[in-house]
Amino acid sequence: MPVTLLHSLPALSQTRFTAEKTRVACDPPSDAAHGLGTLYIDEQRVVFFSTEASCGFSIDYPTIVIHAVSRSADPVGAHLYCQLDGPFPGYAKAGGDSDEEDEEEQFAELRFIPEDEQLLDDMFKAMSDCAALNPDDGGSDSGSDLDDLCVGDYQDESAVQTIEEFNSSAFITSPDQLSSLTPKGRETLAHLESIIVESTEQTNGYNDEGRFDDAE
Amino acid sequence: MLFYSFFKTQVGQHVTVELKNDLAIQGVLESVDQFLNFKLKDIKVVDEERYPHMLSVKNCFVRGSVVRYVQLSPPTVDTALLQDAARREAQSTQQMQQAKPNVAPPVA
Amino acid sequence: MTDVASANAAAAAGPTSSFSMVEEPLDLVRLSLDERIYVKLRGDRELRGRLHAYDQHLNMVLGEVEETITIVDVDEESNTQSVRTVNRKVPMLFVRGDGVILVSPPSRAS
Predict the structure, then answer these.
(1) CB-based contact (8 Å) between A131 and chain B?
(2) Do the Cβ atoms of A185 and C41 come closer than 8 Å?
(3) A15: number of CA atoms within 13 Å, CB side?
(4) CATH code of the domain in which B68 resides
(5) Which segments constitute the Sm domain (chain B) (predicted)?
(6) Do the Cβ atoms of B37 and A131 come within 8 Å?
(7) Which sequence spans correspond to the domains of chain A?
């Protein structure tokens, strides 16, 4: 769950930055994201929690599209701005569920306003560092090759079939077999191959950075 | 890591980052990491009316996976060098692929 | 985790040649360097431009780019669809590979 509403403060073990007495505001407004609380910038996620109200929320880093320091001339005061990749949960209730207008277009903007403006740069840096620790690789919860193959336009069935083909001897294994393909077939093959190569890389590649360092 | 290297050469240049949610941000590239997350400074949101909250934002961190395009300034891009680097990267990637057994995940 | 396991497996297995075809389509892309290519992207977007760089994720840098976005408008009252396209030109563009559906070499780029 990208944004999770909380009723108790979760165990946080790797918190990089804690900002007490921080106000939060959400646009579109949400009952679950307003008022005073403590902001925890943890290596795993961002948590905002109000002990008085016994409620708060946590956000996974891949959900945060942009974060930024907003300082000058903003009526709410200097704050840490976060744009999410979707709506904030509870928004539909708060805004009235009479109309289902452009659900896909909805995304929430959160603003964290610390009591002390001086904290903002450190908050920003902590969030940047933690965001870099949490890259997203297709499926956020499992990240298996199969999940990667299933993203986007492709139905699960065709992705599974691709893997079976890939494993079996039915797969084209020599150049002269390739030449018998129609142009359309080649395009399809090219695309399937690109997916397979990409997903292999996603599981195995990122720890092999050093191998490419000479590409500069 | 061709593009990580490439974007490091773009640090300090004006770019326009276009996101998958159609937001476009102009700014100076401040830093880039291996996931192609970008830090921009002196930014300006192209469609300010849709994003009023970003008016007072000067610096921002953009998550790499939400990027659709980055518009670059042609004079800052050495295309011959880039093509050469791409050929070399293709070679080294191919060698790595060949050294790797093609084990597909178990299919349930 | 996975990375370590695969790395060990790779070290144990050594070089294999039986699946060298896997690289072939990317070779086609490599041969298209400095040529005008056609790229189809998610979100009904198409690009035509000169390929300056790509990697195994199909991240790319294209020059002299023409982008075409196809927009389908649905009139809910008459339930009819109208299709329109929006074009623009971008001199130099980095394209993130996760949006790429298809890359077509020069012969089929119109």
Answers:
(1) yes
(2) no
(3) 15
(4) 2.30.30.100
(5) 2-76
(6) yes
(7) 3-138+147-203
As a whole number of Å, the CA-based R_g of chain C is 19
Q: Is residue B57 domain-resident?
A: yes
How is domain A3-138+147-203 classified at the architecture level of CATH? Roll (2.30)
Q: First and final CA of chain C: distance in angstroms?
A: 46
Q: What pLDDT digit, counting tens, does each position of A19-31 carry?
A: 999 999 998 888 8
Contact A148, A199 (CB under 8 A): yes
* Higher-scoring residue by pLDDT: B97, B69: B69
**Among candidates A62, A66, A212 on the partner chain, residue whose Cβ is nearest the Cβ of B60:** A66
Q: A202 with A156: CB under 8 angstroms?
A: no
Instruction: Give a yes or no: residue B103 inside a domain.
Output: no
Q: Which residue has the tokens 């494993």?
A: A167
CB pairs under 8 A between B and C: 100
Distance CA A30, CA A28 (A): 7
Provide the number of structural domains found in chain B: 1
Query: Is B31 contained in some domain?
Result: yes
Q: Verify whether the Cβ–Cβ distance B69 to C10 is below 8 Å.
A: no
Residue pointed to by tokens 């770019």: B15
pTM, two decimal places? 0.71
Measured CA to CA in angstroms, residue A155 lies from A6, A150, A151, A164 at distances of 34, 6, 8, 15
